[in-house]
Amino acid sequence: MTAAGGGAAQGAPFPWGEAMAFGLGRLRLSSEAFWAMTPRELAAAMQPFTPAGLAPAGLDALAQLMRDFPDGS
What we know:
4 helices
């Protein structure tokens, strides 16, 4: 299948296995409820299970880690 512009679709494929495992397993949704959800609704349902601390470290945090744990020579 191709994208609307005629070329192949770009980017990583949607992680259906992980989404199904989370929706059907963790959230205990019925298959009907899972397949009726939009990806945006699934993402919103996943938010309470995602730790807030998963954001990438900024430059200040990286610099502090480098000071705390210097490479040995």
